């Protein structure tokens, strides 16, 4: 076996070919978009400011059998590895992990997380350890044996992040409706759904709420307005306005709930390449094949309004969308960390059931 750094076009072609081998008999697998990964694994990615990036592929007998990326930035306390793919072979995985760790020793970081993304935690974050089906867009999906490969390399579980799912039939209407009605009847409170024409205004409200709601959490990383504007603009083609809700008290933004259509139901047909042909296929499927699931991306309620039924009000708005759209069958509620027990309790009271689990693994760089 031979490991080599990815530098040339041929190397990158090999990097993107590895999943073809790993998932050739897995009907659940949906390739990540090549263009998304190229954007992240780009030395000019703002998320890598003041840091470093290297990517490798592993070859055996003329065939690529593994890949890995390692990265760090000046404004993140921990280094990361991601986009790991490997055959079920401990020697092969050890070679990949060793290359990544040796590179990260040149940084000033003490801890490496994996598998993670060089940017925000809403994309490609955590190793799937349960619920190996129906992967969502930009959600890590992997064979079950990856857990063993990570643990053999000295990685220990860190954050446990769950995905919950609820159908209209499971939705705890008897509990949620009275709480929501109390919110709707308060003349000081107003709920608005997102409008693309007012994107910058909603982006500013999102930043205000997020930074207030999450700053007390251990893993909090503040967001900037420019980050959120860029993110919302990149999502414009898949945003459905009535699936994103904001709550205001006397005009002040106090809460949001962001969900999107399960776009992987469309992306599964583009074979991981969003070139002009992939875009055409995507547009056609989006036009003629409505999705049957939506995916809640993030909730946020500022501290002084938590526990007052605000989230129930926004969830009732989503429930009303389901009542009026015969295509929708369920909603996923994604990336709920174990450091947020209040949200986990809310989802259980909502009637949601756990369907997937990801774990963010960690290890000292110098183990």
CATH architecture of the largest domain: 3-Layer(aba) Sandwich
Mean pLDDT: 91
Uncertain segments: none
Quick one: how many beta strands? 13
The tally of helices reads 11
Q: How many structural domains? A: 2
The CATH C-level class name of the largest domain: Alpha Beta
What composes the largest sheet? 13 strands, mixed
- The CATH homologous superfamily name of the largest domain equals Gcn5-related N-acetyltransferase (GNAT)
**Radius of gyration from the alpha-carbon trace, in angstroms:** 21 Å
Q: Which percent band covers the strand fraction?
A: 25-35%
Helicity, as a percent range: 25-40%
N-to-C CA distance: 24 Å
Class based on secondary structure composition and strand pairing: alpha+beta
Order of helices and strands: EHHEEEHEEHEHEHHEEHHEHEHE
CATH topology of the largest domain: Aminopeptidase
What spatial form do the alpha-carbon principal axes imply?
Answer: globular
Structural notes for this entry:
The protein is built from 11 helices and 13 strands. It is α+β, with helices and mostly antiparallel strands and 367 residues long. The protein has 2 domains: 157 residues, Gcn5-related N-acetyltransferase (GNAT) (Aminopeptidase); 161 residues, 3-Layer(aba) Sandwich (Aminopeptidase). Strands 1, 2, 3, 4, 5, 6, 7, 8, 9, 10, 11, 12 and 13 form a 13-stranded mixed sheet that branches. β11, α10 and β12 form a beta-alpha-beta unit. α5 crosses α10 and α6 packs across α7.
